[in-house]
Automatic annotation (TrEMBL):
Start and end residues of each Methyltransferase domain: 48-137
Keywords noted in UniProt: Methyltransferase, Transferase
Lineage: Archaea, Methanobacteriati, Methanobacteriota, Stenosarchaea group, Halobacteria
Organism, scientific name: Halobacterium bonnevillei
Keyword Cell inner membrane applies: no
Coiled coil: none
GO biological process, one term: methylation
Stated name of the protein: Methyltransferase domain-containing protein
InterPro entries: Erg6_SMT_methyltransf, Methyltransf_25, SAM-dependent_MTases_sf
GO molecular function: methyltransferase activity
Domain of life: Archaea
Amino acid sequence: MKGQEWYQATEVAEEYDEKRFSRGGRLIDRREKEAVLDAVGPVEDQRVLEIACGTGRFTVMLAERGADITGLDISGPMLQEGREKAKRAGVSDTLEFMRGDAARLPFPDNHFDTVFAMRFFHLADAPVKFLTEMARVSDDQVFFDTFNRFSARSLYNWLLPMGSRLYGDSEVRRIVDDAGLRLEDAEHDFVVPYGFYRKVPDWVAGPFRSGDTALGKTPVGRTLATVSYWNASV
């Protein structure tokens, strides 16, 4: 998997949220959390697994809403940041963080109601294998996001330290099918790529996001979207 050693560095974990979700990056954080909440719906007493939970942005959010949630990640330092976040939010006793490999999930079949992964599949060298494991341990729903091949992200992807795996629409649909899932819904967003928002202050990011959202509702915007959210059922 791309970036495996990089994500396990303590200094990366400590700076991860600040570098990605400050300044204009706060818009990204809000939109991603909205996408997760829209997809999973009411989660009280639902069994939820987050793959590649990182610093626990979504794990803690869903624990606060009553989910019986487990966050799994390969990085010990990232998980420690998540535990600190859970402690500050007062939900340390209502969630579990586990270190583990997403290719070999340590859970029985159909163990969770919902399994989801955000910011993961752009690092996956074998996406079908990972998605198949997610489908195996889910009794109902699998949700994930991808970065899109035919978008502005492709113009600078090769400049990134690890690069990203970019996906076309037909490729994702084939992967979903190969994993034994049924695609229920897909949303497409952010014509202007994430990297731009992270570099600019809020007062610049806000107007750009308004224009971005308006363009994204058009057929042209749908074609140029850099991010897609995929909701599938088992």
